[in-house]
C-alpha cells in the first residue's frame, strides 16, 4: 500500500472517529460515569522556561521540537490526530561519493590568471564549465516520516493547553472533553531520551479505559511497514537518489506500545489501542551509516536492540533518566533579564506583541531556547547540528538542510563554549576529522596541493568540492573557518590532550594555503585565488575575486592558531616559522574612501549591486574573531562600524544574529537590543521560536543566544569585560554559569544598570590570572586552581572582595 493511500485511509478513519464512529467512548454501557482520578494541575508556565499555546499546531513551524542529538520529533499537539514528525541525524539521500570535477585541476591556473587580469566574467564562465563539483548539488537531509495517532471521538473539547518545558525537555498536551460528570482530562507527554535512545510518548486520562487510538507510521520514502509482534511496528526502507547519486542508505523505524489495561493489536497498517488506562509509545530509528564511506550497519538490528533495552524500563524510570541527563547540561547556566505583564501571554502572542511592548523575559526565553536546541541537536557521538538542527519534514528541504560552512554551521556553534556546552562541539570536531580526509583528496585532485580544504558546503558524505555555482561555491575557506572552533574549544578548556588530537587538522588546513596562496601581481602580498566574499557580487558582475578581506582574516586566525598550538605542544618549529612568514605577507585590512572597512582589496563596497547584503563577511575580524577591537585597533573598529551602518539592519534571521554580535562587540547596547527585537519579530521568528530566515534556519537561534552573552560579558585570551553592551531595557538581572577563556566560569548580576556583583571561578588545575574590565575600570584577578574571586562596584570603582 502506498504512503499516500495509507494517509488517506488514516484521515478517513480520523473523520469517522470525530463524527462518533469507530470505538465507543467507554467500554461499558453503564449509566454512571467511570470514577475520575485527580489530575495535578500543570504548573503556571515559567515565562523564561516554557513555550506554551492555547491551540494545536496548524503548521510545522508551530510544532514543538524534541531531540536527543540523534533522533528528533516535531510534536503538533493535535486533538483527534497527533502527529510526531520524525528525523534521524544520519539519514541523507544518496550514498558515498566523490564530487571533484576531473577537469578542475587543469582549468584552475587559467581561472586564476583571468581573475588577476580583471577578466572576472570570463573566469566565472570557465569555472562553471570545468571547475565546479560534479554533481553540482549535494545530498539533502531526509525525513523518516510521521508517527500518526488517531484518537476516539473527543466531544466539546475545552481547556486546551500545550507546552514545551525547556528545563525538563518534555512536551505536554492537555485537554478536557465532555461536560459535567462525563468530562475527562486527557494528557499526552513526549520527550526524546538521550539515555535510552528512544522517543517516548505517554497517553493518559483521568478515568479508566479512556485511552483509545489508532497508530501508524507514514513515510514519503521507499519503505515497507509490517507488524512486528502483537504491539509493535517495523518500517524499513532505503533513502532516495538525488542529482545522479544512487540512494543506498538503508533505514529502519520501530514503534512499540506498552499499555496498562485494555487491548493492543498490531496489523500491517498500524496498531489499535482499545480502551487502555494508559499507553506508553516508544519510537526509535537508525540507518546503515557508520561513517562517510561505510554504510554497512544493520538498522533493523540496531533499532531492535535499542527498543528492547528501553522497553525493559517503566515510564517513570525513562522519564527520570531523561530529565536528569538533560538537566545535567541545561542547568549549568541561568539568566534573568526582568519581566513585564507581556510575559504572561502564550508564546505566539508574546512574539506578536514584542514589537509594541518590550518583553525582556521573551529575550531570556529565546536565550534558553537556543541552549535547549543545541543540547537537542548536537550531542557527542551524533552528527553536528545542520541547517535545521535535526528537524526537517521535506524530502527536498531548503538548501538541502545540510551544512553550509560559509557562516551557518559556524554560527550554530557560536554559543556552545559560552554557555558551557563544550561537549556539544564534539560532533563538529568529528566532522572536521572526516573533512580532513575527504578534503585532502579535494586538495590533491583539484588544486594539486598538500593538506586539506573544504568549500562552502558539505553533507553526510563529507564531500569538499565547490557546489552550486561559481558565485557561491568557489570559496576555499570553509574548512579553515571551521578550524576556528577547534581553537576556541581548546582556549576555553585548555586541554592539551584535545589540542594534540586536533593539531593535525590545524596543520593540514594551514598546509593547503601554504601550497596555494598566490602572489598578487605588483606586490609581495599572498592572496587566495580564485575566491569570493560570501555570497556577495562585486561591481564587475560576479563574486569571483582574489584575496577578499574575509579570507585574509580567517587565514590570520588559522595561522595564529596553528603557531600557538605548535608552541604549546612543542612541535614543528621550522613549520611554525614558515607559517609566520606567510602570515606576514597577507594583505592588511584596508579602509575605503567612505571610511568603511573594505570587503575586497579594491574599494568596491559602495558600488556593489547589494550594498545591504545579508552577509557581513569582511567583519569576521570583529566577530567571531577579535583581530579588530575597540581599544586595540580603534581606527579599524570605526571603519567596521561604518561598514555595518552602510550594510543596514534589514537582514535574514541569521544575518541579524551576526549583526547582534557585531553591535555587542561595538559596545552599542541600544543598537544590539534593537537588532535582538528585530530577530524576535514575527517576520524573523516563527510561533515556535524557530528562526525564520525565512524559511526556517536554526543558525539565527544560536546566533541570538551567543549575541546575548556578548552583550553581557566578553572574553579574550586572558581578558574579561563585564556588561560591555547592557541596554536600558534590561536594568536589573543576572547571568550565571557562563564560561570565559582560560578555564574560567562567571556569575554576573547587575542592578539599575550598574554592576552589583561578579564571581569568577577557575576550573583549571593551576592558578590563572585574568584582567577584568568594567568600562574604564580594570582589575587584575588571580584565581587559584578550583578557587573563586568576587568583585563588586564600590563608589564607582571595581574592587575585589
UniProtKB/TrEMBL annotation:
Sequence ranges assigned to domain Glycosyl hydrolase family 95 catalytic in this UniProt record: 315-712
Ranges where the Glycosyl hydrolase family 95 N-terminal domain occurs: 51-291
Domain of life: Bacteria
SUPFAM superfamilies: Six-hairpin glycosidases
Molecular function GO labels: alpha-L-fucosidase activity
InterPro entries named among the record's database cross-references: 6-hairpin_glycosidase_sf (IPR008928), 6hp_glycosidase-like_sf (IPR012341), AFCA-like_C (IPR049053), Alpha-L-fucosidase (IPR016518), GH95_cat (IPR054363), GH95_N_dom (IPR027414), TAT_signal (IPR006311)
Protein name as annotated: Alpha-L-fucosidase 2
Organism: Nitrospirillum iridis
